[in-house]
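name: query_chain
kind: protein
chains: 1
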Amino acid sequence: MSSSTRMALVTGANRGIGFAIVRDLCRQFKGDVVLTARDVKQGRKAVQQLQAEDLSPRFHPLDITDRQSIRALRDFLLKEYGGLDVLVNNAGIFQSGDPTPLHIQAEVTLKTNFFGTRDVCTELLPLIKPQGRVVNVSSGYGFKALENCSLELQQKFRSETITEEELVGLMNKFVEDTKDGLHRKEGWPDPYTSDGLVYGVTKLGVTVLSRIQARKVSVQRGGDKILLNACCPGWVRTDMGGPRGLKSPEEGAETPVYLALLPSDAEGPHGEYVFEKKVEQWKFNSQFYLPSQVTCPD
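structure:
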């Protein structure tokens, strides 16, 4: 495989929104598309389904909670392509009505949605080629979680100078506070008022992480014209989103694919949170603005 061959990679792509993103990229992206999944059998089955549609994705296993799995993927990308042009971090988990103790829910969900995504970025962002695109799939539940945080926490998460280390500290503190029964006292959203607020805190972390990463890219590789954003696909009818979702997986894929395929001369968006292909403002407002139709688990 030539290192000049362009390539796009999607995590958590054997079903749902991730699968729909891969399908669209296979149709629109000028280069190879790699579908990744934790379950090898399901990942290969997804590739076969797309091959039956005359599309040609490649498959590589990836468990984003396993650093060795991420590094094996990194080595594959370096050997086969010399890097990558598009990275869509879609992999995530959400359990509705989970009876598991709150602190375990928080720890497990953060391990995948926040720390797994962060580990993928740590290993793969250095491989992004000039004019590359990075899309971190977040959620409107992250906005809802932020709305339900204390004013002090809101100001920290909205800060234009928050560091990755400070954000990691906040995510770890959320787990410890739930374990100690101090989450309400410490200003975190009450998970018992909404089924998705633990998930929402993890996606709040993904959105803030994206803003931090975009700042770093601008400083360290400002001339490479790399664009990195977070987005919400909307409430999608998937195994995770449930049957009442307002969108099909194909509709949910539209905004992530739009960001993944921003033209090479695009100036932005960069470091933004995007919903329905539009930038949502990330600033303090006492009458907090929650984009319509984003109270969703996707």
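note: The chain is about 45% helix and 15% strand.
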